[in-house]
Amino acid sequence: MTPTLSLDTVTHRYGDTLALDDVSLTLSNPGIHGLLGRNGSGKTTLMSLVAGLRKASRGAITLDGQPVYENFAATSQICIIRESGDTTSEWTETINDGLTLARDMRPYWDDAYANRLLDRFQLSKKHKVNALSRGQRAKFACLLGLAARAPLTMFDESYLGMDAPTRYDFYDALLEDFMAHPRLILVSSHHIEEIAKLFEEVIIIEDGRVMLHESADALRGRGLTLTGPAAAVDAIAAGANVLSEKTLGSTKMVALYDVAPDLEERARAAGLETALLPIQDIFVHLTAKRGKD
Amino acid sequence: MTTAIARREPIFPKRILLDQLIFSIMVWAGFAVFMFALTFIVSLVREIEVSGWNIGGQPARWFAFVVGIYIGWTVLQLHVTHGGTRKGFAIQALIFSVAYAALLGALFVLTFFLEAGYYGLMGWPQALHQPELYAHPLDFGMALIQWVMIFGVWTLGGLLIGVAWYRNVILGALCIPLGLVAVSISTYTFSGEIGPMNWLRAFVPPQPGAVPAITAHLAIIAVFASLTWLAIRDIPIKNKSEAG
């Protein structure tokens, strides 16, 4: 069962700081969806509100039509794993204590899968949580998120601290588990180039507002690079929305966004090399255009 | 596909109670052995005239207080981040505090009987420094009532300070004088001693005793529980970096 998550004109303030500004968003398709944004854009606030960890200053957040905040019928269907690893206590608790808590609290918890992930991530039940390295903590937090099998699962930068091989192992585990148990998974990450291939839909949030929400395939199709002789590239790219350009001798490469439907065909006919622009590049260009450093 | 599972939020704090029960029994066993050993060491330099275990009630109530803080500070966050509600936590925490106070009270009072055997063996008198609700350590009924109430107030006091401090440092600090007032009233209703807060005499019954003690402790528990709920009901669950 994939739930429908709806945010209707959600605004959230921390004192005088506006963190989310009139956000409306609906997610109902099963998939691994990317929530992208620069630091301070409002991603963590959005996920925290969706999980009921905070109460929105204004607006409504529902899961399958039910208000999320202080509603166990909704919150028990949601799992959020934040970068700070706050689903585990760290006084004297072991990984086994963390698993026992999750088993007790999570209605969809899969113990056998959790044990397989322990082996996969090379964690021991006897390890004390406060003695784990940052990467090990991240692995344990991601394990808790995966094995919870919540219909709405959110990973908020939760694999920061993992080294590259472990991150790729996590992406594989995430995809495998999603294929076996399709559900709504929302991932925020700064490692966009690594995980973008998993995304079904992409939401880009900037300055607390949703800048873009569309399918990952459609987004990829909106960006194009052209490479070839400078004169030919300039001729084809004339009038297009140019995000960046590089020149090496007589060869030029331009990155275009929101290209005309026939532009790729014309470029190929002119002998230019074409390639889809990676989502990360589109994200960088879209958010950098706002004049931030 | 994941099959939808609907269940009610549990209100009985089974896991928290079990965790704390095991931990507290371990601490109690260690503390009892320590107190008995300490009494023996003291007996080498002076006469034993009163129950050492009764004096051990001071650190015991602080232990209950710290457990209350742990529940309010740590378990609240875990409960909500794992999909529970604040209301569900508040109900569980209240039930926990009452049940935990009963457990600690029973452990504490039953230890007087172990101490009676030990003192009998050593030929020491098991008297009280001053009578409270119970005139002798083996007055099981009254001793149990007193210690359950003490542990209840201290556990709930810790819970209140834990959640208030988690919500806001100033709010947490403001709870400290409230706690001191509660402790003074609690002590007075058992022993007639009110400590440095002599001004409180205007608000307490003229004589200590079972009825004033039970009434005062129920009132303190009601106030603590109400304030705890006010602090919890819309508390933001912060990132660990913010909360620390």
From TrEMBL, chain A:
Pfam families: ABC_tran
GO molecular function, one term: ATP hydrolysis activity
Domain ABC transporter: 5-232
Record has ATP-binding as a keyword: yes
Alphabetically ordered keywords of this record: ATP-binding, Nucleotide-binding
InterPro entries xrefs: ABC_transporter-like_ATP-bd (IPR003439), P-loop_NTPase (IPR027417)
The protein, known as: ABC-2 type transport system ATP-binding protein
Automatic annotation (TrEMBL), chain B:
Keywords, in A-Z order: Membrane, Transmembrane, Transmembrane helix
Annotated transmembrane regions: 21-42, 62-81, 93-120, 140-162, 169-190, 210-232
Name by which UniProt lists this protein: Uncharacterized protein
